[in-house]
Design brief:
mainly beta, five-stranded antiparallel β-sheet
Length: 160
Amino acid sequence: MQYDIQSAIALVPKTIIPFRTRLKGFTITPTSVSLRNVSFCDPTVTKSGTWSRTGNLVTVTISNNGLSNNSRVYLNVSGGTTMRDGTYEVSNVTASTFTVISATSGSANGTVDMYSKILIETDTYNIISLPVKIPGEGVLFENGIYAGLGNGTTVSIFYG
């Protein structure tokens, strides 16, 4: 039996563990009944850029983004209004832009941090906490764990 399991809580998107570790399990706690997601990413694989939205189509500009169509990324929106943090599937990829579909609509723009190496992604559509146990040794995160939280979501992790 393993006795060195530790826990941490993320209330906002952040690097929750800054060192090599194994994720053993987690509990997602949404604050409302609607689609909520959590993505656990490599915190060292991130790039910053800008976004602009017309209707519900969002164009993200990040030079040398390294993406291809249908890639999944976590976007942490740090500027602008009404664009939600979350995990998105990208399309219309060029070397410096890509598009995603937003749950909200209207004209807006701001800044964004993109995490493109997602190791675990999960969704819930319930207000009840969702515990997830990872069997065996867990999932190895070489460079730490960035907890990418969708709006209205917190997560508790168990690692070691």
